[in-house]
């Protein structure tokens, strides 16, 4: 289950990841609390989330192209150092009670740095383990992220009450140096380098052409968008299902425990396949619909555990397949596009689910979203079961591009008449 931990480089990377994720969650809790305390507006909290996610939606492909062209160690060191400076400035701004536009501006800058940081981290993370252990490393990364989330949320509550919110930003600033130290400490001779793109395949356009030319990648991204926007924005639906802050905190803890179990389940599997992705997506979607009709908060919490576990298995499997089924030289751009899809799903899905909860009710929203994601999963399964040329034809039809199937051997190119081969017109000499 923990075979990726056999390598020294990955152990360093995993420890740094846990520390950094814990600090990031501490800052997120502190930022949301400060914005809510000063403005009294949930919309302002949503605005801070949007400012963090919007750069990923707009600039993701360019960040991926950069990660595929320049040494990722330089990108990581520059971005992590910038994150540390911005977190320290946020701590100063909160401590001095600076105007909220300044806080929002620093939040947007942090989101901009994250755009370029993400693909580089993903590409470097693929070098600290062997190719056959990448799925296991991603699954263990999900466990570490869930553990860091629990540690960050619980520690943030204690520190904020004891010494105030600014210290949360300072702790996060220090946590970035764990990643810097890990990058500098890894043994370069034990890395598993990824191939670079040839000259004709560099740049954003080449990455977009690569993705749009692959019906499989397009389908996986579309399914990921549907599942993320309607199926895994549980911060919204859990809040709508809760009748108090205590119950919301309990549901958040239950969800976090489920994500840990899901990460362990993914790590226990030798291979993470598309079939596993479709099966877990179908089961999770059905459980989401069931969660809207189970009676009582206890019943909802019980169903929430396998839903959270399934969400991690889906994310881990999708990320694994996107990376392993893509050429090494395209990995940064594909990871960036995957991140942009996830950010767009959160930006679209969260307000939509919130609006539906207010209009038709939280239980009804869970049922509707579960049915829609189940239908999306069934559609994806039917398309993936089709022959490759039909999948390609569907992708080109969606993109409104002409599709030219391969011509069988021995057949002439171009259209032929129904009655038989084209007769050549006699040449008349004059």
TrEMBL record:
Residues 402-430 are annotated as: Disordered. It is a multi-pass membrane protein. InterPro entries: MFS_trans_sf, TM_effector. The chain crosses the membrane at residues 12-35, 41-63, 75-95, 101-122, 134-152, 158-186, 217-234, 246-265, 272-290, 296-314, 335-354, 366-387. Keywords: Cell membrane, Membrane, Transmembrane, Transmembrane helix, Transport. It is found in: Cell membrane. One of its GO terms (cellular component) is plasma membrane. It comes from the Bacteria. This is MFS transporter. It comes from Saccharothrix coeruleofusca.
């Amino acid at each position: 289950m923990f075979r990726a931990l056999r390598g020294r480089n990955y152990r360093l990377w995993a420890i740094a990841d846990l520390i950094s994720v814990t600090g990031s969650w501490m800052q997120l809790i502190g930022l949301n609390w400060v914005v809510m305390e000063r403005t009294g507006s949930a919309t302002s909290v949503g605005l801070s989330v949007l400012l963090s996610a919007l750069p990923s939606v707009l600039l993701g492909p360019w960040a991926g192209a950069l990660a595929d062209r320049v040494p990722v160690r330089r990108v990581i060191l520059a971005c992590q150092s910038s994150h540390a400076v911005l977190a320290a400035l946020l701590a100063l701004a909160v401590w001095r009670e600076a105007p909220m536009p300044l806080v929002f501006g620093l939040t947007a800058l942090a989101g901009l740095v994250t755009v370029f940081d993400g693909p580089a981290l993903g590409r470097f993370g693929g070098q600290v383990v062997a190719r056959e252990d990448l799925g296991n490393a991603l699954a263990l990364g999900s466990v570490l992220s869930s553990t860091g989330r629990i540690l960050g949320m619980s520690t943030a509550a204690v520190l904020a009450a004891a010494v105030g919110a600014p210290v949360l930003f300072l702790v996060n600033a220090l946590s970035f140096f764990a990643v810097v130290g890990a990058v500098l400490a890894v043994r370069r001779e034990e890395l598993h380098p990824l191939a670079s793109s040839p000259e004709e395949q560099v740049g954003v356009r080449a990455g977009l052409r690569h993705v749009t030319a692959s019906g499989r990648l397009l389908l996986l991204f579309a399914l990921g968008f549907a599942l993320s926007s309607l199926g895994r924005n549980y911060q919204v639906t859990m809040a709508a299902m809760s009748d108090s802050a205590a119950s919301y905190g309990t549901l958040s803890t239950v969800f976090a425990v489920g994500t840990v179990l899901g990460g362990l389940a993914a790590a226990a599997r030798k291979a993470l396949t598309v079939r596993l992705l479709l099966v877990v997506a179908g089961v999770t979607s059905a459980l989401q619909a069931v969660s809207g009709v189970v009676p009582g908060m206890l019943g909802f919490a019980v169903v929430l555990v396998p839903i959270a576990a399934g969400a991690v298995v889906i994310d881990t499997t999708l990320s694994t397949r996107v990376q392993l089924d893509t050429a090494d030289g395209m990995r940064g751009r594909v990871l960036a596009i995957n991140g942009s899809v996830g950010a767009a799903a959160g930006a679209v899905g969260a307000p939509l689910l919130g609006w539906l909860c207010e209009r038709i009710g939280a239980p009804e929203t869970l049922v509707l979203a579960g049915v829609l994601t189940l239908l999306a999963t069934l559609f994806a399964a039917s398309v993936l079961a089709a022959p490759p040329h039909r999948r390609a034809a569907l992708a080109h039809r969606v993109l409104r591009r002409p599709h030219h199937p391969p011509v069988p051997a021995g057949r002439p190119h171009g259209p032929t008449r129904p009655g038989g081969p084209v007769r050549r017109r006699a040449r008349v000499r004059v």
